[in-house]
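User: I'm writing a tutorial on reading structure tokens. Could you give me a worked example: one chain, its sequence, then its tokens, then a sentence or two explaining what the tokens reveal?
Assistant: Sure. Here is the example chain.
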Amino acid sequence: MSTPESRAASIVIVRHGETDWNIGRRIQGRTDIPLNERGRSQAGEIAELLHDAGPWQRVIASPLSRAAETARIISDRLELPQAEIADDVIERDFGSAEGMLVTDASARWPGLDVPDAEALAALAERGASAFGRILREAPGSIVVAHGALIRSALTALSGTEAPRILNGEAWLISPAAARDAPAAHEIPFPVDETRNGPRIAIRRLGTPAEQHAF
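And here are its predicted structure tokens:
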């Protein structure tokens, strides 16, 4: 069972709510696409989950508006200060693929290894380093970021391929000693020693019920 002490030592990573480009399966990257109404609803739903799972100390967000608005909805519900902006949790720069349909970009560049985009290895390193830094320096944080960044970072931190990260989904990163016993619906990652800090545990905390079709 979670305790205030265990949450104070953890961070939770949240993907921003839905946008119209998510529905259209277009690559957003650093193109600044706002939340749609379902995205705002998803942010409110995950805020309720985080309220019940807290307490939390602060909210940190990517500078892109879809993440910043998700963070504002969360901070308002939890009565926390407005989000601190962190450039190192911004989404991958997808270069020439931004604005393209995912299917078209994947056909042109298998694995979305786009020549003028941020390299996949660099993305994983940046995300893992950012989450490791926040866990060490600002435990108790809610971090609102982006799907490609979160998935790459969780894979790098755990050594296990992370699943697709859904809009509004929340993942808990904890020191191993603070880990809660996983329930049946959770997907735990192995506890691992990482170069970004001490042994950690990663698990899905919750997902908004309403999602667009894939």
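What the tokens reveal: The chain has a mean pLDDT of 89. Residues 120-137 form the longest helix (18 residues).
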